[in-house]
Specification:
Number of strands: 11
Order of helices and strands: EEEHEHEHEHEHEHEHHHHHEE
Number of domains: 2
CATH architecture of the largest domain: 3-Layer(aba) Sandwich
Strand content: 5-15%
Distance between the termini: 32 Å
Length: 306
């Protein structure tokens, strides 16, 4: 397992001046933290967590909302895992923000190994890698669920962008609620297994994030962040023209939920006129993919990109 190539290392004991007060909310607060990077980054921020085997929709939402938070100066916290976690860290860095990764093993043990470069960029970008386990500790499966309680405790609120049922992501939400923290959830299609946990949280009373405005409102309520202008002055004419453009029935259907090729061919047959349905569909899917509004999922279905 490759370790990050550099950065200051710290050991912060419970009771020390630099120990984050928010972690005292956690179940069994760590007696000691092991940190690479800037300990000042361990402030109450926004946790963004989701599935490791993320769909394009889940990864896209993680990137979208991490970018929005980072642009407003909110530290983005996650677990450094594949999928939604990695997407959130990357987007925060791309926006010039700070991000914190709680690792399952020691903070100097890069897991997954392909994220070694990402972990180094987190440190170089003013963020931190942190763990309750000492240097050189190899991660074991039980450690990942335990570290979820620290993600939830440090974050002022946790945003669930995609979660199956059961899942580690769902457990992070449980820890957040136990620590009296807010939980925000991005809804998913009721037919998608990858969104069963997220939708269950909504049913249980979590706050839904249904668009950029609802997320901006949540950031303002929790962090005092003002909304940013979404379109620069002078661009209104183009935006209006796009708003008036007719919506392709394929794009409209995929914006709602993932669909199989069989379902998409059924929609095509009703809308292609005299054209061959398969040819008509192939063109529309290519257009949607090029526009960044839809993508093919690993199971062969097509769905929203986020």
């Amino acid at each position: 397992m490759k370790a990050p190539t550099g950065g200051p290392r710290w050991e912060i004991a419970r009771g020390d001046a630099g120990y984050p007060e928010a972690l005292l909310r956690a179940d069994k607060p760590p007696e000691r933290l092991y940190v690479i990077g800037d300990p000042a980054a361990l402030e109450e921020g926004l946790a963004i967590v989701g599935a490791r085997k993320a769909t394009p929709y889940g990864a896209g939402c993680a990137r979208r909302f991490a970018r929005m938070a980072a642009e407003r100066g909110v530290v983005v916290i996650s677990g450094g895992a594949r999928g939604c976690d990695g997407a959130a860290h990357e987007a925060a860095l791309a926006a010039g923000g700070r991000t914190v990764a709680f690792l399952g093993g020691g903070p100097d043990v890069a897991y997954p190994s392909e994220h070694a470069g990402l972990f180094q960029r987190i440190v170089d970008g003013g963020g931190a890698l942190v763990s309750e386990h000492p240097w050189g500790t190899a991660p074991l499966p039980w450690m990942f669920r335990n570290r979820n309680r620290l993600i939830a405790a440090l974050a002022r609120t946790t945003l669930i962008v995609e979660a199956g049922l059961p899942s580690g992501t769902f457990s992070t939400a449980d820890y957040a609620l136990t620590a009296s923290r807010d939980v925000l959830v991005v809804p998913g299609a009721i037919t998608a297994a990858s969104s069963r946990g997220a939708n269950r949280l909504l049913y249980q009373g979590a706050t839904p994030v249904v668009d950029d405005d609802s997320f901006s409102d949540a950031l303002f309520s929790l962090f005092g962040c003002l909304k940013q202008q979404e379109a620069p002055a002078g661009k209104g004419k183009g935006a209006a023209a796009r708003a008036k453009a007719p919506t392709c029935p394929i794009a409209a259907a995929l914006a709602v939920e993932p669909l199989s090729m069989e379902s998409l061919l059924g929609i095509a047959a009703h809308n292609c006129g005299n054209e061959d349905p398969r040819t008509w569909l192939a063109v529309r899917l290519a257009e949607a993919e090029a526009a960044g509004t839809a993508a093919r999922y690993p199971d062969g279905t097509w769905g929203p990109l986020g």
